Amino acid sequence: MDALDLFPEAGIRFLAVQHEQNAAHMADGYSRISGKHGVCTAQNGPGISNFVTGVAAAYWAHSPVVVMTPEAGTLTKGHGGFQEVDQLPLFEPITKYQGHVNHPLRMAEISNRAFDIAMSERGPTQINVPRDYFYHEGMYQIPTPSPPEKAAGGPKSILAAIDLIRHAKNPVILAGGGVTMSGAEDEVAELATLLGAPMAVTYLHNDALPADHPLYAGPLGYQGSQAAMYSLRDADLVIALGTRLSPFGTLPQYGEDYYPTGAKVIQVEADGRRIGTSKKVDVGICGDVKLAAKEMTEALKAGGSAIASDENKAERLAKFAELKDAWKVKLDDITYADVEACTDRIRPRHALRALEKGLVPDSIVSTDIGNICSVSNSYLKFNHKGPSMLAAMTFGNCGYSLPAAMGAKVAAPHRNCVAYV
């Protein structure tokens, strides 16, 4: 469209793709690695409907993707013209905000709102524009971004969480994608070190914490780490940081339902609607996980009453080390076990182990859906901080990994990007 001619002067890089779903996945991968908005646009009708799968994946990955959807012109809408479809209902359940430009002079206002909400609420937004409005001329005031100030959470909920932590004898930290999004790796590790608490990560968030930290337990969920699962099973307090505690993320595995139903649970989550939705929680903190973890750690260090977990810290750390060693041995046994397979082909687990060892520092890995890609949960470890693992998350659609890796490479051309297809 003619607006493309303006992009170079505006500093916008436009990348054409062969299929619109790829554009949505590329925008997803770009946004997750860069921490900036990913933007995609397409032809009205079938081009826009091809976005749906990719936008749904971005929704459940909490990616700030802005979807620009041109629609049929105002004078022909409803006539059943070429490539016409009602586009707003398609995205209603998978976006944080839908802005329909009902007058061309509102283009800047509605676009600004879509960009702000995509970042503040962490999810896709839609800007729906009748095609004839792209050719309008007028006087516009371009708003500046208005990001909301982040906070640790309500003072009462923070104090209640600190009280639970002080009295817990066997706390375990469960870190989710919010830790990566807020850059809270150091703050979470500091809290864990203070408590001597193992740090498990939720399914497909292997990059939430550096794997070489002594308290890193590994991922939960499908084909996850038994060291993480058994640590969580024995906990009397789960400190869930930056996770909505989705059912799939704590899926029973290896014949064991390890989630500790008798433990107290603290959940720190930026989206208040997700607190206590999937799992019962004793204290819910609606706030930024980086700030919340820092505030809780500082309060615990400041003194007051004793921290109960200090009494058995050495014993717990010794047991945790045994769990990690046992899982390492078992994973090797699983990887190299004799199975019925063609001897002239590489076995999938052998390939995943080789890829694990071959990844250079600061690599980015994207995985597709499917059993073999999901088994990579056992092997993917990232010793660096920052977003490094991409997946279609709980939406679980095919065709995700390659375009997501392409978007990641655009965001970080200096980093190696590997797609498990």
Could you give a short description of this structure?
By secondary structure, the chain is an alpha/beta fold. The chain is built from 15 helices and 13 strands.
Task: State the main characteristics.
421 residues; alpha/beta; 6-stranded parallel β-sheet; 4-stranded parallel β-sheet; globular
How would a textbook summarize the main sheet?
A: 6 strands, parallel
Question: Proportion of β residues?
Answer: 5-15%
Helix content: 25-40%
Radius of gyration: 23 Å
Helix-strand category: alpha/beta
> Roughly how many Å apart are the termini?
33 Å
Mean pLDDT: 93
Q: What is the element string, with H for helices and E for strands? A: HHEHHEHEHEHEHHEEHEEEHHHEHEHE
The largest sheet has its strands arranged as 7-6-5-8-9-10
The total count of strands amounts to 13
